[in-house]
Amino acid sequence: MYYPVARPRRLRSSANMRRLVRENHLRVDDLIYPFFITGGRDVQQPVESMPGVYRFSTDRLLIQLKEVQSLGIPGILLFGIPDSKDAVGSGAYDANGIIQQAVRAIKDKFPELLVITDVCLCEYTDHGHCGIVHEGKVLNDPTLELLARTAVSHAQSGADIIAPSDMMDGRVRAIREALDEHGYADVPIMSYSVKYASAFYGPFREAADSAPQFGDRKTYQMDPPNLREALREVEQDITEGADMVIVKPAMAYMDVIAAVRENFDGPLAAYNVSGEYSMIKAAARLGWIDEQKTTMELLTGLKRAGADIIITYHAPDVVRWLKEDG
C-alpha cells in the first residue's frame, strides 16, 4: 500500500498517538546501577572522568541506596577497590574483603534490593590483570580456582547474582560447580559472555584503579571486529551454566546485541560503559547535545536491539526523566 492511501504520518500526529503505537519502551525495571566501593568511612570521592559518579565507602553507599530504593531501581552492580593489592588478588576472595563487607551491610539494610557482584581479579592484583600472571603471561586454568573462591565468598556474604567479567575460558563452569558444592545452587550467574577489548573502558579504569601495569587485555578480552565469536562465547557460557549474559560495551555493539537476541532466548544485558557515559556527559556540559534526549535515545536503542536489562551509570537520571514523562 502506497501514498496517498498509506500515510504513516497519521500515527505520528500527537504525543499520545506516538505513545499508543510505540514499539519499544524503556522502563525502570530494565535498569541496573553500578557502584564503586572503597574502604574507610565517610568517603565520597568523585571520579573526575565520570561526572556524577563517585567512589563510596560502605557507610556512604548505604545513604545512596535509600535513593536507589525510592526510585524503584531493582538492582545494583558492585565493584570493589581494596586498600592493598598483591600478585594473586587475595582481596577478591577474602571473607572480610571490601565487597564482602559491603554486601553484608547492604543486605542487612535493603534485603529486597538485588545485589550483583562483579567477579574479577583486576581490581585486586598489583599488576592489574584479570588473572594470575607468570613470566608476563596471564594463566587461564590456575585463575579459575581463584575466581570460583571469589564467587563463593560473595554468595556467602549474601550476593543475589554473581557476574564474572574476567573472560577466562571455563570460568562459568568453575563458578557454577563451586557455588553448587557450597550450597548456593539457587544463586544465578550473569556472565560477561561478550566483553570486547574496548577503548570505551578508560574512565572505568580510573574509577576502579584497575589499569594493567603492563601490556593489555587483548589475549583474553574479545577482538572488536568479531561477531561470530561472540555467539560462540555466549553458547559456551550458557552450556556451562550462565543464567544471564552481558554484552559489553553496548553503543558500538548493537549489532552484537541483536545477533545474541536472535540466537538465544535467555535474559540479555547490555552494559552502557564508562566511556559511553562520559562522552554524553562531556558533550552535554559543553552544550553540544541535550543530555536527556541523547541518553534516552541511546538506551532505547539498546532495548530495540534486544537487551532486556541495561547496566548504566545514567540509571537515577533515567528514572527521574521517565517519571517526568509519565
Helix and strand sequence: HEEEHEHEEEHEHEHHEHEHHEH
Under CATH, the topology can be stated as: TIM Barrel
The CATH class, by name, is Alpha Beta
Gyration radius, to the nearest Å?
Answer: 20 Å
Question: Mind sketching the topology for me?
Answer:
Layout: H1 15-20, E1 31-38, E2 44-46, E3 54-57, H2 58-71, E4 75-81, H3 98-109, E5 114-119, E6 132-134, E7 137-139, H4 140-157, E8 161-164, H5 171-181, E9 190-195, H6 202-208, H7 228-240, E10 244-248, H8 254-263, E11 268-272, H9 274-285, H10 291-305, E12 309-312, H11 315-325
Parallel strand pairs: 1-3, 1-4, 1-12, 4-5, 5-8, 9-10, 10-11, 11-12
Antiparallel strand pairs: 2-3, 6-7
Helix pairs in contact: 3-4, 4-5, 8-10
Properties at a glance:
single chain; alpha/beta; TIM Barrel; 12 strands; EC 4.2.1.24; Aldolase_TIM; magnesium; zinc
Structure commentary:
The radius of gyration is 20 Å and the shape is globular. It is built from eleven helices and twelve strands. Helix content is 40%, strand content 18%. It has helices at residues 15-20, 58-71, 98-109, 140-157, 171-181, 202-208, 228-240, 254-263, 274-285, 291-305, 315-325, and strands at residues 31-38, 44-46, 54-57, 75-81, 114-119, 132-134, 137-139, 161-164, 190-195, 244-248, 268-272, 309-312. The two termini are 35 Å apart. It is an alpha/beta fold and 326 residues long. The longest helix is centred in the middle third of the chain and has 18 residues, at 140-157. Helix 3 links the parallel strand 4 (75-81) and strand 5 (114-119). The strands form two sheets. Strands 1, 2, 3, 4, 5, 8, 9, 10, 11 and 12 form a ten-stranded mixed beta sheet that branches. It has a two-stranded antiparallel sheet with strand order 6-7. It has a single domain (23-325), classed as Aldolase class I (TIM Barrel), CATH 3.20.20.70. Pathway: Porphyrin-containing compound metabolism; protoporphyrin-IX biosynthesis; coproporphyrinogen-III from 5-aminolevulinate: step 1/4. It catalyses: 2 5-aminolevulinate = porphobilinogen + 2 H2O + H(+).
